[in-house]
TrEMBL record:
One Pfam family recorded for the sequence: PP2C_2
Any coiled-coil regions, as ranges: none
Name of the protein: PPM-type phosphatase domain-containing protein
Superkingdom to which the source organism belongs: Bacteria
InterPro entries: PPM-type-like_dom_sf (IPR036457), PPM-type_phosphatase-like_dom (IPR001932)
Protein's organism: Limnospira indica PCC 8005
Annotated region (Disordered), positions in chain: 147-184
Length: 570
């Protein structure tokens, strides 16, 4: 008999994400599919094991439903990750209420079984339904379903709840926020917006995102942060870290210059040595300015945490034992980007960008030739789907930061910095950041030059939609009518029309990059009706806010924040 243990052949680190994919809580990838197929063919695969997985997952959903209906039991008090599982529960609701349910017959059948089970449970007694249980947290851990737009999706059963009064220590963030910079670099526009996520609206919890930007001399400075939802005061950490980092960089860059070298010379300066440091002296100095800003942000967050310890409302009591507020209660990610325009002998010019990040989210640059370069490398936490934060152990060590620092040297079309509430919706980020940029154009957040009708018709002749009338006749295949989740008294536009560049390109039979490179095809996709009637008079940053709050992705619940530095051609 062999002493070999077949369980030793199991690579759980690879297998668990593959199981998540089968369940529907992780995005599809060829690697996950291949891992699952190999497991099915291996000696380790047994149907009993799969049934155990199913039963365990069913128990989790059962626990969430008990908590959702305020049914107390011995386990609920120890359920530390309720909000993580609540997201999975809401993912299931999102799938079941999607119009694409017919493409998933096994889920369609499940819907009938759920209805039958509920009906039978209510036959004997019809108790009054309890009020929605509002959680005081929404964990940063995020399990994402496959991101996809759907034509005319049925609105899931999400509700709007304001942040309760008892959660207003530290002043809650506004429901929405958008702004532009009044004096951005020459030839560029700078806008940003953040919105409260669908899950936060449903649970009545705070928006945890924040962003800041400013300019000093010839430099533009951008900071974006996402507070850890499981930490009640993380929004404070997000705000403070952004403000501190921008202030630090303004001080460092006020008198800093790259001496306007030729592009090839600057590229050599930003080559890496064997320790991942940049080779040029100026490049190293600039690199260190970013790291100083990150450390300054940490120091300010630590100072704030120590100050808040003195206020009883910021501390908590569990089982009669007082727990003092800790710096980790202010945990947040932090993404930084700096930009300048470099002129060479008054004859040529190019853009320079340098970025660094701690935690998840993404930074991406698109060149004038629509070449995409990712400028971010998200930190992944101890468990899949989690992330690290500015307050996480060792995240500010030099050896970690040098691996998260990226330059862009060339002619810039757009620089986009975002929290994972946006970046996860455009996964894989390469090439889907091009989709994001295209969506901003089709929804008129970013304006493009008009072209004449002859040019539009000429370009359309190369596609499946031969005329502008064909585009209009097929607009429902790439434009969704959506209803926003808003306070009943809100004066915000309630119903909006959202276009998808991916679906538009599909109707044209063209690659997204080809569509972006064609002013004629882009103009053809700019339908006469904007996102909303009010949008006609809105500024770009206000339209960005509405778009962020409206676009649909299955399994997308989080706060959304996006800052865009872009060249708007006329």
């Amino acid at each position: 008999m062999s002493n070999h243990d077949p369980n030793q052949d199991l690579n759980l680190e690879k297998l668990i994400p593959a199981i998540f994919w089968k369940v529907g809580i992780q995005k599809y990838s060829d690697e996950l599919k291949e891992t699952w197929e190999k497991f099915k063919k291996s000696d380790n695969y047994e149907e009993d094991k799969i049934l155990k997985i199913i039963n365990n997952l069913a128990d989790i959903y059962k626990e969430v439903l008990k908590i959702q209906f305020d049914i107390k039991n011995e386990n609920s008090g120890n359920y530390d990750n309720y909000d993580d599982v609540a997201k999975l529960y809401c993912s299931l609701l999102d799938i079941l209420t999607s119009e694409k349910i017919q493409s998933l017959p096994y889920l369609s059948a499940s819907e009938d079984r759920f209805k039958t089970a509920i009906s039978k449970a209510l036959e004997k007694k019809s108790p009054q339904l309890p009020p929605l249980s509002l959680s005081d947290k929404s964990d940063k851990t995020e399990y994402i379903l496959e991101s996809e737009s759907t034509s005319n999706p049925i609105t899931p059963p999400w509700q709007y709840h304001p942040v309760p009064d008892q959660e207003k220590e530290g002043k809650p963030h506004d429901e929405f926020y958008s702004k532009s910079h009044q004096s951005p670099p020459e030839g560029l526009k700078l806008i940003g917006a953040r919105v409260r996520g669908k899950m936060h609206k449903h649970q009545g919890t705070n928006c945890d995102d924040w962003f800041e930007f400013d300019t000093v001399d010839k430099w533009t400075i951008i900071a974006v942060s996402d507070g850890a939802g499981s930490k009640k005061f993380s929004r404070i950490g997000a705000k403070i870290s952004c403000q501190a980092a921008v202030k630090s960089l303004k001080k460092s860059l006020e008198s800093f210059s790259l001496c306007e070298p030729p592009q090839t010379a600057l590229e050599k300066d930003f080559d890496r040595d064997d320790k991942w440091m940049f080779k040029g002296d100026k490049a190293r100095e600039l690199q260190q300015h970013l790291y100083t800003a990150l450390n300054d942000a940490y120091q300010k967050v630590e100072e704030k945490a120590n100050k808040l310890k003195n206020y009883p409302s910021y501390n908590k009591s569990i089982g009669g034992k007082k727990l003092e507020l800790d710096i980790k209660d202010l945990s947040a990610t932090l993404l930084l980007a700096i930009h300048t325009k470099i002129h060479v002998n008054n004859s040529t010019s190019y853009d320079f960008v340098l970025t660094c990040q701690v935690g998840d989210g993404m930074l991406a640059a698109i060149s004038h030739k629509y070449t995409l370069k990712l400028l971010g490398k998200p930190d992944i936490g101890e468990h899949g789907g989690q992330t690290d934060f500015l307050t996480s152990s060792s995240k500010l060590e030099h050896s970690n930061l040098v691996q998260k620092t990226f330059p862009f040297i060339g002619n810039l079309k757009a620089l986009m910095i975002m929290t994972d509430g946006v970046s996860d919706d455009y996964f894989p980020n390469d090439p889907c950041m091009l989709d994001l940029y295209g969506d901003l154009i089709l929804n008129r957040v970013i304006n493009i030059p008009n072209v004449d009708a002859e040019e539009i018709e000429k370009e359309l002749q190369k596609t499946r939609l031969k005329t502008p009338d064909d585009v209009i006749d097929n607009h429902k295949k790439f434009q969704d009518e959506l209803e926003r989740i808003l306070d009943e008294e809100s004066k915000e536009p309630k119903k909006v029309s959202i276009c998808s560049i991916a679906n538009y390109a599909k109707q044209l039979g063209k690659d997204i990059k080809v569509v972006l490179e064609s002013p004629g095809l882009l103009n053809a996709g700019l339908l006469q009706n904007q996102m909303c009637q009010e949008c006609k008079e809105m500024k770009s940053e206000e339209k960005l806010k509405i778009w962020l709050d409206s676009y649909y992705r299955r399994g997308s619940f989080d706060d959304r924040t996006l800052v865009v530095l872009y060249r708007e051609e006329h």
